[in-house]
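To make the argument concrete, we let one protein speak, a sequence paired with a row of structure tokens, as a model reads it:
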Amino acid sequence: MNRVEHVMGFPVSLRIDDEHVPDGIADAVFAWLREVDERFSPFKADSEVSRLDRGELSAGEVSPDLAEVLGLCEEYRVATGGAFDVRLPGRGLDPCAMVKGWSVQRAAELLMGAGLARFCLNAGGDVVTAGGPWRVGVRHPEIADKLCTVLEITDGAVATSARYERGDHIVDGRTGRPAIGLLSVTVVAPTLTEADAMATAAFAMGEEGIEWAAARAGCEVYAVDAGRRVLRTPGLPVAGAGSVPV
């Protein structure tokens, strides 16, 4: 089964290779992602995040889901010395860097809870898989139709943070300035919650973020720095060809 919808501002594709697919499971996945967008988007005036940011809700009044997301945001803020921060001076509360991976991982857990064993859920290039192996391409940071490498993933997740789609949009919370030390950083982790948050956090930290992410349990890293050097951890699950020099 294959299905693609545009949710949370990017295409989300779901492929299920199990022989028997429960009725309504794909509907449940996309309904959850649309619900997350309504509840947690800082760009929607009536979302829970916007209401909290305006002071209409106190920290003790937020939903358990938002409390979990904000707790994760604080965990990564502390772990990065403030480089990863969803409350930047002069800006509203924006937990999108955590919400995307967290919500898509929860969607994957819906699939697993329905008994599905082989699927790939791709949310704007960030991928969570079950079964496999699945081949996941890492886009070249400067050549849109080329790949740097191809990864082979089974029961795990891959996320990339880069400058190629939205420019210098990731800010180093320690300085308040755009993070420019890396062109892209890809993290392979057991869950997309971890992979996406660590890719963003490592990008915000710059070159020191590569070693930081690599030291996290179960994580592998592939990065291209501003000088176009490729930096990768030894355990990166590379599938084979498909690369061009960087």
